[in-house]
């Protein structure tokens, strides 16, 4: 069966058909699917019933796996032994404590690991249990946001760097000076993708605290306009999860967000990330 990439929306995302994630890929398959990833930013593989080992191997087709940042303290049935590179994203609780990270509610648009000096280049998310509705993941095309940004706004941001924090609320309570135990990093506001050579927006509403070297009031106004533009629904794809979906996205040129979902319904996802190769420029 030929490998196909079926677009999920006009500007971002493609469903990959004709590949089996339960089996090793030859080099020709890796090259072809990797090319689809660079073209479409987000790849969807449906109906893939994977073991933990197969999930990790699938991520490894796209680069070197990153180390787990926040291991979960508990495991659901069938996950008593969780592989080192896998993070649980779940609202399931044992004794009132979530077994995984990011358990509840919606999340604003963001790039994974933007708050570290060497951000991860890609993320894989695999669905095990999904609620009856909600918990959807939205993806925004950062290339499109850069290329269509009004010239006056883009000119003011070109060449600037922004400061990002994992916990923006805690940073702001520190009067914008930074909090030592919170992970923080500074990056260019427009990132040149090292493999495609294209520029994309590289800031987001969830983590970006301020524009470096700019008056805070002016910077906040520019950021508000830039956030609104970068989240334009025209270049956003909303993914409605089914069990055994695997999604891979490029953090260098896309943002993602999550919609809310019913509090009493279980959601269990497995997450891996791919280490970055170069510092953002």
Outline of the structure:
By secondary structure, the protein is of the alpha+beta class.
Q: How would you describe this protein?
A:
By secondary structure, the protein is of the alpha+beta class. The chain has two domains: 4-103 and 118-140 and 233-274, Clavaminate synthase-like (Double-stranded beta-helix, 4-Layer Sandwich), CATH 3.60.130.10; 148-230, no CATH class. The protein is 21% helix and 28% strand. It has six helices and 18 strands. The protein has helices at residues 27-40, 52-60, 142-148, 151-157, 168-173, 216-230, and strands at residues 4-7, 14-17, 42-45, 87-90, 93-94, 97-98, 107-110, 122-129, 137-141, 161-165, 184-188, 190-192, 199-201, 208-211, 236-239, 246-250, 254-258, 268-274. The strands form five sheets. The chain has a seven-stranded mixed β-sheet, with helices on one face. A four-stranded antiparallel β-sheet has the order 7-17-9-15. The protein has a three-stranded antiparallel β-sheet with strand order 11-10-14. It is globular and about 55 Å long. The model has no long low-confidence stretch (mean pLDDT 92).
